[in-house]
Design goal:
Nucleoside Triphosphate Pyrophosphohydrolase, eight-stranded mixed β-sheet, alpha+beta, 3 helices
Length: 200
Amino acid sequence: MKSIDIFKGRIPNIIGKRSEYAVLVLVINEDGEEKIILEKRAMTLKSQPGDICLPGGFIEKNETSEEAAIRETMEELMLSHEEIDFIGPMDYFISPYGQTMYPFVARTNRTAFEPSKDEVDHLIKIPLRFFMNHKPLIYEVDLSSNMGEDFPYHLIEQGKNYPFRRGKFKQYFYRYEEYVVWGFTAQIIKSFIDILKEDV
């Protein structure tokens, strides 16, 4: 057995295997107004076709979350590395569904894009002031323990009467013109706006 000394200087991680993703809140200045770039996902994608999302994606092995956010944005928006002015990280988000999201903030001087047709149906430019001036609709989702009949209740005190924890998870919705921004994307944008308002 290894010595417990292996814990000296160890970098901690989250217990349990999770899917990790990184995204960019990418801001442009168009016609004298700051706007956030969002994507409507291609309808041919297997995962969440047609959803509105931020540029980004899965963090690959031996890749940092920052590198993943930039790489995915470059691939989806067909940008060069030099066209992305990386600013810094936001707070990361751990979902109750087994995903960790690492959002970052960046800007680009580009205002015209030709995104990858394989991943993006089209882009949406939403003025920053819209999010600053409009509160999202909030819907609370109940989180509860749902055990099957084969769950070993006999191994725990109180068995089926054990007071398993319950919780709530907030889902946010922004409606802009014909688009609805919701889910993790809305959660990250709301956090982004909250930080901006705190700074003001």
